[in-house]
Structures are given as structure tokens and as C-alpha cells.
User: What shape does this take?
Amino acid sequence: MKILDRYILTTYLKTFLSVFVILLLIFVLQTIWLYIKELAGKDLDMVVVFKFLAYFMPKLIPLVIPLTILLSSIMVFGSFAENYEFAAMKSTGISLQRAMSGLSVFIVLLGFTTFMFSNNVIPWAEYNSLNLRKNIAKLKPAMLLAEGQFNDVGDYNIKFDSKSGEKGQYLHNVTIHIKGADKSKNATTIKSISGELIGKETSNVLKLILSDGNYYNDIYRKNINERKKNPFAKSTFDKYTINIDLSQINSNVDIDDKSYSDRYNMLNLSELDYTIDSLTLKRNEEHKALSKNLYQRTNITRLKNVDISKSKPKNDSIYSGEILDLFETKNKTQLLDLALRNIKSTKQIIESKEVEQKLSKSNYNKHIVSFHEKLALGFACVILFFVGAPLGALIRKGGIGLPMVIAIVLFLAYHFIGIFAINSAKSGDFNPILASWFSTLVMFPLGVFLTKRATEDKGLFEMGNIVEPLKKIFNIKPKNSINYKFLSNYKNEELINVITNFESLGHEENTRYEAIKTLNARGVKIDEIRCEGVAISKIFDASKTIFNNYKAHSKFAIVLYSIGVILLVLFFVFKNNKMPSLQSASIQLSIVALFLFIIYYVKSLFNLNHFYSHIDKKEKISNIMLLIIGIPLYMLVYPFLNVKINEDLKQNCLDSLK
Assistant: This one.
């Protein structure tokens, strides 16, 4: 390893480890804050608390490692640029790519290590953390009851609006549900104005004394009609004492029990692959069983037992009337009743299976997402390095401050794009494979762009390439620009003189083109200008014709695009407001408008390419991929293309005058 590579790697590792420890500590504190309700009031010893944190820390690595790589890269390479260390490297012939090469090997190894960690350690952490949380949840607090919500304590669900007193022992507006013998529903309800808790947090008995309330007890009736009336018995009390035994709640909990092991995030790649295959086979079998069930319910199979040769039709003609007319009234009623009952039962089956299929599909998608997330994490580490390192070199700012802000903004964009994509995939609205890679794929072109800009030693953005076309689109001219309105006061002979003798008259070259435009606006054609002694090449005539064709086709395209988009928006409005007729009409017209837009858009592209081929500037022909991307963004692309072709037509005209 060369001295330079060792120096860059050592500097990066120092920053990386510092940032990693700080970020991990921040996320651990956030985890404690997030799960504080699950830990408080459980009388847990420190060993269990440390286990809880130890199981949760590996799950934070997919968040901490990418952010650490991004922030460290920006800080280190920003510091190199700020302290002119990159300038010293470049003076000795060492490029940015060469400076990044040694560190890139470390990042690739780190990405592979992160993948192995996510494939082996994180499933183990998920398995242990979930089981520990489930076991902790069984340890009910003796005295810690939250106000404004139902607190599940043994067979009792206790809710109160507020509590007071030094220890919070006085409760107000108390509602208690007592579970029935089957534990599945509430059999008794108690409501009281106030209550008092007596006991200690370490005790196994919780005494609750209620004052001024009512006792409602459900009465079970054997008669179904009477049961629908929901009968109950009501009694009133001044004082009512409830003793809640907590010994059975806390004593039977094994904090090390690990009976939960069937979640998708507890599996590694090989286990996920096996489970996905099993789920696929299960889904196929369920589909076959459902289709077979629906097929059998149609009673079509009975037709196979009918001997058609024994039937004796009266004639050979095809019957074209109503089928029901062939039957008597009594049989018609029976047939219709049978058909309606069959349809109703089939609909119920389909609706119930639809819910099951959605849950099954969601579970299947979660396994696929979990499989590809493990693969994408390693690649994300490498790509975020190639975003952060060149970005730091471009902004030329190290330390904590601007790099921190930029890193957090980029990471939040990366993180939330991934969350939205994965959530959409789990609900079945997005491809689960693409969702796992989506945020990484979004960052990839940014990394390529920034690396290219930094390698070519260019700025982060060349504002001139953005601002100047915008100024031309909105016709914003600089203060020292020439206003050509004075040409409108010239006579035709004077304009001809400006074209031929612009230098002697003290005008710049652009004045010649503006003079020709003014003459054209007055109805003077190019041939008539030639007759006045102005030498204009015939090439400009063809250029002007192609330009006019482009303008006509592009105008049609922008109008059709606007109509198509507006109708498409109206389609969604009508759909949300349940207007089927308007919804259908708007989407049909929108499709027609957008189809015609594509036709005129393609025509305008042919005109554009023909124009640049004609003026022998083929390098200005737009990339086909950029033009395809420009289809949905045509409203933005259109003005920029217009500015571009107008400028090139003017230059072609001036070249034709030489």
C-alpha cells in the first residue's frame, strides 16, 4: 500500500469510526425512547435491559452504515478539497479517481461485510428481539396504568380519564370491562365516577375501590330472538372493591422463551428462498382449489352425463328466443331462485377468498422484499460512497456543518424513497423486487453524475446552463443588451443598408438578423432581399422551411399534450367522485389526445434532426433516451427546444450572409 492510499484510508477510518459511534448512540437513544412504554413498570433487571438493547442494535445497522459512509465521505473529501490537498495531488498528476481507488476497495469490502451481517446477524437479532418483546409484554405492571386508554390487567380492562394524588392513586371517570369465561368478549361492564388504587408496585394484589357507579352484567338467553335484544342487568353501588391478583400474571413468564420464529425478517437468504418457493406452491394450490370449487358450483359437470343422442328436437333450426320461455312458470321461478342463490353464495366465497388472497399476497411480497433488501444494502454502501466522495470534493467544505446538512438531506431522500416503495410493494401496489432496489437505483445516476463532474474538475452546477435558457424563454434581457426596436422605425432601404454595411454603421452582427426578421414581418421575402443585392445562401431557405415545419408540429404537440393531461386529471377527479359516464369519456378523449401528441412529437423530432443535419451540426442532435424521457415532461422540454432551435436558426442565417 502506498503512502497516499494509507493516508487517505487512515483519515477516512478515523472519521468513519467517530461518526459511526455517534450515529449508533443517537439511534440507540431513539430506540429507548420509542420502546420506553414496553420497559417501564415491568420490574426488569439490568441484564434484561442490556439484552433488549443488544438485540436491537444490529437492526440499526441498515440505517447507521449507509448514513455513516455518506457523511464520512463528504467530510473527508470536503476537508481534502478545503485544505488544498487535492490541489497538491493534482499538481503531481494524481486524479480524483486515483485518490478514490484505494478507498473504493475498502468500501467494497465494507459493503460485502454489511451484506453478510444483514444476512446472518440481523435475522438473529430480529428473532431474539421479537421474542424478548413478547415476553416482556406479558409482565403486567402492578400500579403503572396509563390514563385515557384501556389497560389490560389480567381479566380486567381498565380505563380512566385522569388521575391525581401524590402517587396517582385517585382515578376519575373509571370504566372497567371484565372478560367472560371464554376470554373472547366482555361479559361485565363497570362505570364509576371515581376510584382509588391501594397497593404497591412490588405487591401481587392490586386493590381498586370504586365509588358512585353502576354495574352492568350481560344476560345470556337461549332464545335467539331475545338474544338479539342484548338483555342485561343493572345495579347501582356506592362503594365497590375489586382485588386483582397479579401473581399468576407475572409468575408464569419465561423471559428467555423463544417460541416466535416464523416472521420473514428472521430468515436469511437460503431460508427466504425456500419459504418463497413454499409460498408460491401454496398460492398456486389455493388458486386451483378455488377455481375447481367455482367450476363445480356451476353444475357444468352434470352436462357430461347427459346423452345428447337421446334428445329429439322438433326441428333443426337454432332457437334464438329467451331461454326461460322454454319452461313453465313454476320451473322459471325455481330456475331463477336457484341461479340467484348460486350467484349469491359464489359471490360470498369470492369476497372471503379475496381478503385471504390479499393477506397471502402481502405476506409473499414481504418475503421477496426481505430477500432483495439484504442484497441491495451492500450495493447501497458502495453507491452512497460514490455520491458522498465526489460531492465533498465539489462543495470543498469539510468538518461538521454544511456536509452534515447535505448528508442528512440526501440520506432522508434515500431512506424515505425506500420506505414509500417498500410499503407500496407490501400492499401489492408496486413490484416487490424493484421496490427493494428503488432507492439505490435512484442514487446510482446521482453518483455517476457527481463522480463525472468531480473528475472533470467542474462545479456542482453550471448555473449559466440553467439560467440563460430561462432568461431567453421569459425574454429577460441583461441591462446592457441592445434593444432592436429602433429597427421598426427604419425604411426597407435602410434595413437593407444595415444588412450589407452593418460594420460601417457601427452595428453588431446580430443586427443583420434582426433586420431580416423585420423585413420578413413586413412581408418582404428572402428572394426579394436577394434582389436588393444581399447575398444570402440558398441553404438558409431550406433551413427556414424545416424550422417552420418544426414550429407547426411542436405547437400541435404542446396543445394536444395539454388537452391529454387535463383530461387525464379530470378522469381521476370523476373517478373519485363516482361519475362513471364522465370518467369513461374523459379517459377515452385523453388517450386519443395523447396518442395524437406522440405522433406530432415524433414529427417534430424528425424536423429537429433534419434541421441539424441540414446545417451540418449533427453533434447537436438530441440523445434518443433524453427525448424519450422528455415525453412525459414535454411541457418543460418544449420551451427549451424552442430557444435552442431559434438560436441555431439565427446563427445559420448569419453564416449564410458571409
Summary: The radius of gyration is 39 Å. Residues 250-255, 303-314 have pLDDT under 50 and may be disordered. Strands lie at 151-153, 156-164, 170-179, 186-198, 205-218, 232-245. Residues 139 and 588 are 61 Å apart (CA to CA).
